[in-house]
Amino acid sequence: MEIDQQLNTIKLGELSFVPFISAAKIAERVQELGKLITADYQDKTPLIITILNGSFIFCSDLVRAVDMDCEVQFMKVSSYEGTTSTGKMTAVFDTLPELAGRDVIIIEDIVDQGHTINYLHQLYLAKKPNSLRIASLLLKPDAYRYEHPIDYLGFKIPNDFVVGYGLDYNQMGRNLPAIYTLKI
Ligand code: IMP
Ligand code: MG
Question: Does residue 39 lie within any of the structural domains?
Answer without folding.
Answer: yes
